[in-house]
């Protein structure tokens, strides 16, 4: 069976809302785990960035589709710094992370589970390890700092937590429409295995949904009229931790990870999909058969690709095409580069600010810390600390003890003192403030010309004698009021011609 491939372009409508956002990936001590790896997120790319406004829904735990786990679980050393990244375009980190008008608090929750893959997420067992609301000393919300930090929210896990499987849940609450009771929640969940011999557990846990109720002050606060310093973050305070020794309901610590591991024979990956080597061959029929197995894996890769994209699938597609080329050239000693791991090297970043809890009913008086990054080392390594007005530390607070995370950080510019009613951005977006009654926020959007989708390309017809398969990669343009715009889609059609014997 012979196989060829072509790439086509098509135009598709993808309704969304301007600068809505997705928790797309996470880093452990500054090392990327890969786009979409071990992340539960909404699987429909056209709606992946939509917020949640039904606080009673089970989707509040890990987002829509979040009651179903993904195959990967990432190992996390005790006391690590976790960095979660938001993107308005889940497959393009170069776009803005969140609209500047979406102001509000951030939080990170954990849930100890028996299985990070099988747990349904919704229900009791959640406890907060971090929150950050409004800081009056710098006139900034947590979202202001998150945006300035490339959409990255970093928190240091409490040292000595009970080891085992957890769901880690970052959360942002956008309050720009909260005067109508429409606070918008953005969340996702990372599936992790905490490598720890510790015994600390939370004294109390909460249920999600259930930890926040419609109509409560935290979800209908008017940020344009009220004193922002009086805002109370939704949910419980940061959890106090206690030893699990002698606590009947403490659960069982797991000491070794057995699920969600990368297979030993994997040589490629895309989010939660793995590619494995195809059979060796020494004749023409074996060559085409090996190529066919490669293309079947590629089909599975594209089908499994989350909203964060299919870059790993594109790498695997080159491998399949290489086998095809070898078969056409009558080179039957293969596959080419047998056993070579095609997975790109993990990116290491400077995580920037590692935030301290502020405005959530706990001590917010921790020292303000920044640290210089060191090249070619995990970016959670500490350096010299300084105190400035423009910077706020990001540390984890557990119980009565506040521990400032020692992580490199970059300075966040001081906020503008102008009112939001007249604000406009260099990106072509204008924001409206409160109306005369102070009830509503109105937003006017101008989409930059550079973000308009190109005209569609007519798809090619499937040649006679070929079997065609279509795979799709999507990008999305977002606008307010759910005005439908075009977004670019790319299709790869694999032409498969029958011939030869197996």
TrEMBL record:
It is an enzyme of class 1 (oxidoreductase). It is found in: Secreted. The keyword Nucleotidyltransferase does not apply. Its cofactor is Cu(2+). Keywords: Carbohydrate metabolism, Cellulose degradation, Disulfide bond, Monooxygenase, Oxidoreductase, Polysaccharide degradation, Secreted, Signal. Residues 395-418 have a biased composition (Low complexity). Residues 20-231 form the Auxiliary Activity family 9 catalytic domain. GO terms for biological process: cellulose catabolic process. Its EC number is 1.14.99.56. It catalyses: [(1->4)-beta-D-glucosyl]n+m + reduced acceptor + O2 = 4-dehydro-beta-D-glucosyl-[(1->4)-beta-D-glucosyl]n-1 + [(1->4)-beta-D-glucosyl]m + acceptor + H2O. The lineage of its organism: Eukaryota, Fungi, Dikarya, Ascomycota, Pezizomycotina. This is AA9 family lytic polysaccharide monooxygenase. It holds the Pfam family AA9.
């Amino acid at each position: 069976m012979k196989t060829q491939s072509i790439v086509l372009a098509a135009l598709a409508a993808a309704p969304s809302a301007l600068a809505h956002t997705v928790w797309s990936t996470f880093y452990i001590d500054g090392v990327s785990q890969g786009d979409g790896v071990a992340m539960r997120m909404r699987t429909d790319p056209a709606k992946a960035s939509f917020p949640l406004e039904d606080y009673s829904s089970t989707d509040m735990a890990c987002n829509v589709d979040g009651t179903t786990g993904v195959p990967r679980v990432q190992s996390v050393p005790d006391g690590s710094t976790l960095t979660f990244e938001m993107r308005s375009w889940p497959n393009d980190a170069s776009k803005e992370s969140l609209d500047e008008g979406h102001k509000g608090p951030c939080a990170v929750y954990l849930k100890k589970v028996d299985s990070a893959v099988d747990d349904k997420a919704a229900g009791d067992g959640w406890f907060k390890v971090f929150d950050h609301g409004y800081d009056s000393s710098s006139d900034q919300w947590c979202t202001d700092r998150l945006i300035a930090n490339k959409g990255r929210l970093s928190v240091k896990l409490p040292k000595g937590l009970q080891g085992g499987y957890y769901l880690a849940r970052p959360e942002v609450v956008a309050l720009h429409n909260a005067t109508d009771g429409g606070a918008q929640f953005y969340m996702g969940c990372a599936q992790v295995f905490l490598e720890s011999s510790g015994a600390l557990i939370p004294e109390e846990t909460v249920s999600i949904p259930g930890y926040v109720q419609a109509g409560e002050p935290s979800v209908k606060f008017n940020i344009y009229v009220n004193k922002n310093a009086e805002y109370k973050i939704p949910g419980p305070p940061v959890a106090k931790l206690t030893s699990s020794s002698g606590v009947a309901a403490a659960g069982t610590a797991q000491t070794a990870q057995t699920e969600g591991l990368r297979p030993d024979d994997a040589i490629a990956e895309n989010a939660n999909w793995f590619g494995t080597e195809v059979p060796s061959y020494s004749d023409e029929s074996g060559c085409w058969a090996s190529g066919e197995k490669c293309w079947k894996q590629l089909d599975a890769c594209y089908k499994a690709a989350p909203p964060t994209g299919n870059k790993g699938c594109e790498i695997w597609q080159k491998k399949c095409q290489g086998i095809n080329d070898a078969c056409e050239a009558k080179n039957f000693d293969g596959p080419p580069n047998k056993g070579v791991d095609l997975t790109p090297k993990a990116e290491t970043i400077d995580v920037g600010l590692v935030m301290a809890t502020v405005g959530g009913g706990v001590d917010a008086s921790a020292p303000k810390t920044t640290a210089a990054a060191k090249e070619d080392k995990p970016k959670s390594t500490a350096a010299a600390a300084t105190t400035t007005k423009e910077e706020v530390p990001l540390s984890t607070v557990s119980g009565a003890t506040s521990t400032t995370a020692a992580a490199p950080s970059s300075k966040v510019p001081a906020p503008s003192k102008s009112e939001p009613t007249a604000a406009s951005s260099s990106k072509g977006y204008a924001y409206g403030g409160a109306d005369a009654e102070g009830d509503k926020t109105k937003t006017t959007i101008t989409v930059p010309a550079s973000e308009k989708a190109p005209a569609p390309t007519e798809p090619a017809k499937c040649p006679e004698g070929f079997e065609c398969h279509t795979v799709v990669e999507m990008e999305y343009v977002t606008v307010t009021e759910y005005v439908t715009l075009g977004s670019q889609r790319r299709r790869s059609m694999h032409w498969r011609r029958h011939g030869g014997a197996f």
